[in-house]
TrEMBL record:
Lineage of producing organism: Bacteria, Pseudomonadati, Pseudomonadota, Alphaproteobacteria, Hyphomicrobiales
Taxonomic superkingdom: Bacteria
An example Gene Ontology molecular-function term: biotin--[biotin carboxyl-carrier protein] ligase activity
Protein name from the UniProt record: biotin--[biotin carboxyl-carrier protein] ligase
Protein EC: 6.3.4.15
Organism in which the protein naturally occurs: Rhizobium indigoferae
Amino acid sequence: MASDRRRRISLGDFRHEALSETSSTNSECLARARAGDGGNLWVTAERQTGGRGRRGRLWVSERGNLYASLLLIDPAPMERLGSLPLAIAVAVHQAIRRVLPPGAEPLEVKWPNDILIGRKKTCGILVEGEGLPDGRYALIVGIGVNISVMPDNPLYPVTCLRQQGSAASPEELFAHLFAATAEVLEIWDQGRGIGEITALWRAIACGIGEKITVNLPDRSISGQFAGIDDNGLLMLDTGAGRIMPIAAGDVFFG
């Protein structure tokens, strides 16, 4: 049984270092990995001077939001790592849900791992990896949550927890994230628990069955969002019975 082979993960397995300011919590974690850190390290910062999102985009990083990165070393075989962003999205969703008031707008996940409140983005997740000279593999999960500050010129509609009636501080939200991530990574079980993770993800997904456009590096494709497969790939119904699996892209609704 899965429970017989699963290694128990507890809060005590993780460490946390809180910084006042850094260029990027992801960069800080990578530097620690290159210096030999054993992983399971959270780094948070009150402010980032060089925060970034997917495809090198600038991530606004003023004080008042949560900026956190988790360093994992050899978290799973390479062929199972693709499901980790889904697991992290589930954990972040759980953490944010715990600080939202009952009257807040719907909290959902947009594929693969943006967190939306009322179809407006409040959190981005950036996963980066690097092979280390000693043969280990460092994987860094960066998480930025809009608590009281939002971008001025966003690519998507945005919101923040304050607009949704939450009075949570970055420290309070991180405490929930710290606990939720440990719980979800135990379920994920080095990628062996992908079935449980995809079920949890589908239950909180945004837009399944709706028309979407996926922007790829070289083109845009429209169709119906048919959900995700068991490996976490987006399934796009482009018509005429053709389902296209997509591993990475920017999703727009409508």
